[in-house]
Amino acid sequence: MSRKKVKLQWISNDAARRATFKKRRKGMIKKAAELSTLCGVNACLIVYGDGEQQPEIWPSAHDAAIVLSRLKRLPEMEQIKQMMNQEGFMRQRHAKLQEQVRKQERENGELETMLLLRHGLAGRSMHGVASRSQLANLAWLIERKMCEMRRRIESLRRSSVMPPPEAVKKEVAPASPALEAKEKKAPEAATEELQPQEWLLPFFEHGNGAWLDACFLKN
Amino acid sequence: MSRKKVKLQWISNDAARRATFKKRRKGMIKKAAELSTLCGVNACLIVYGDGEQQPEIWPSAHDAAIVLSRLKRLPEMEQIKQMMNQEGFMRQRHAKLQEQVRKQERENGELETMLLLRHGLAGRSMHGVASRSQLANLAWLIERKMCEMRRRIESLRRSSVMPPPEAVKKEVAPASPALEAKEKKAPEAATEELQPQEWLLPFFEHGNGAWLDACFLKN
DNA sequence: CCGCCTATTATTAGGAC
DNA sequence: AGTCCTAATAATAGGCG
């Protein structure tokens, strides 16, 4: 600003920093007062001094409190709404993608399982009660395949194009808390459902060979 | 600043004010950022736009909330002290003005009451126990006059020149919490004392005619 | 640390488009 | 209203006492 153009970085020299701080804080407060006067706007400025416990408050602690209460009065009402507006659209889109992903997953799952059964268990009979070791092996193979698929699905999710925040306007009104909650919970639940060991194994415990045939081997 | 030195007052022209506001707010935020960077201090800036519901917040709503919470954390212990530091001088001055006002009020009160009694009750005897209706009427007249006076006093108070915030430095150290509290309470108490119905009527209930003569009719 | 000074940079008012 | 321009004012870094 003066004899030398100053670099915009922390002034390491202690005395110089303190001097600059005092000058500039004074200047800032003057600017704030001018802005407030010239344009008749409400504003407040809080500057913590270098190491000072008490900040300098403009225009006064009292007026600042008024401004701040006004800011705090609409925190949940507007700020959350704002957040919802920004994330709601994304969430909705995410839920839709999730739905597509699950659908595809089911299709792929059926196809892969079918192929796996065809290749891995060709000629072996699934009728009656199969041996536990054979079925455990099958479960592991299926699980492995599904893990691969889940990795691919996650990759697809990550690479899916998200709408930039600027493009998100207030068009999307939140319908009801219950609905929001349901939509919010959906993506997580989708992942939880896909633990193969959890839902596959029971079928191997009770002799579901006929059912497996009906489901996977019909083609 | 530029082609013309601007007067420090509300810009009446709408477009000019908005333009100035935009430029200066931008400048302020830049200054704030510079100050924060150069001196490594914590600060926040909140500026309500002209008519905007949502203020512009620097550095961000979140960071501002942090700064504000820090301000709120030491609420009664330090903030009151701070308020006292900034407003104490003004309060003191206000209390002095208040004292002058009360003194003048007493003088005016005596004078006006005397005139009222001279004009409204000329020739009627105030000795002995006057009729309740006559005294109630007198009380009402006195009350009305004092209401007028209080209005005038309020007007004087409002028009009294307050010292600008810039002139108030940290020269005034708070002496003790008790003393501060007393000085803070004084201005309000002064107004409360001036309810005529409260303190006038008792005199009409117990036959104070002689006292009234002594007080108001001696001239 | 504080105030004062001044060369220099930064901000901005007013206009033009 | 928004952008660019420019003259003019305002802010201030670095010295000095």
UniProtKB/TrEMBL annotation, chains A, B:
Residue stretches in coiled coil: 87-114
Keyword Ion transport appears in the UniProt entry: no
Pfam families for this protein: SRF-TF (PF00319)
UniProt keyword list: Coiled coil, DNA-binding, Nucleus, Transcription, Transcription regulation
Listed GO CC annotations: nucleus
Disordered as annotated region, ranges: 161-192
Keyword Nucleus: yes
Ranges of residues in domain MADS-box: 1-50
Source organism superkingdom: Eukaryota
PROSITE patterns found in the cross-reference section: MADS_BOX_2
Alphabetized GO MF terms: cis-regulatory region sequence-specific DNA binding; DNA-binding transcription factor activity, RNA polymerase II-specific; protein dimerization activity
GO biological processes: positive regulation of transcription by RNA polymerase II
Localization terms from the record: Nucleus
Name by which UniProt lists this protein: Agamous-like MADS-box protein AGL80
Name of the gene encoding the protein in the UniProt record: AGL80
